[in-house]
Amino acid sequence: MTTAALVADGVRKRYGDIQAVDGVCLRIEAGEFYGILGPNGAGKTTTLEILEGVREPDEGRIELFGKSPWPRNPELLTRIGVQFQASSFFDKLTTRETIRLFASFHRVDARQADAMLERVGLTEFGKVPADKLSGGQAQRLSIACGLVHDPEIVFLDEPTAGLDPQARRNLWDLLRDVNQEGRTVVLTTHYLDEAEILCDRVSVMERGRVLRTGPPAALVRELDDMVRVSVESGQLTPVLMRELLAAAGAGDATVEDDGVSLTVATRTPGPVLSVLGDHGALRGLEVRGATLEDVFLQLTGREYRA
Question: Quick check: 304 pLDDT over 90?
């Protein structure tokens, strides 16, 4: 039987007329990589801050390793690592001085701090002022400061926001390693590919509430969405494709051609692929099933969020 690292039950937080967190219930197992997803304003950051013990809930129960994180519990501080959505470092301190400072808060010696700096690939930037680092380097330093005391659970608030693709991938590798070493990782993100690749389970939030929880692949299967089969335009006309699909018993499929791709949406892709293969129309073939993004959009809607 797995052991819960964190349990939240009926957690609520209000700011004036805004119900930022509205009855959130979570159970996060020890060693799990857990994602909290949601559009801007869904309550992700407030929820994370309550779980960390940084912010007091109006209602509800939170247990972190069986103890309440609020009011700030000194027994938990060495067991928790935190990377906030925005981090500011001391202007005059170098990268090495910064991580050594954070290490000193937990009575961790300088050698361990330097080892963590190497771990995140920042040793060669040790003498660079922390505020002169690039976005990806600053995020790695922020995560290193949260890991330097070897915590059991790490909270990360949108750790790859604003990073270029290469920096994001590098951080993914680091976070995978952190989790595979046995640490529990809890992160918020609005990058659906990130959650799908990294997380064992996710909770989708909207307007302060958890709408759905589960492994990304299971949530996608529950959606039962169409499979989209696309090929390069010009190989078959949409009219002919519809006739061929009807003859093959796949007349419920929809066919669209935007001048670049001929796309067939269907729940039974086998006959579609057979038709395309039989007529030599496989150039540019692409088969796309539902993704976590489709689940997210179905649950939270498609309207623009500032």
Answer: no
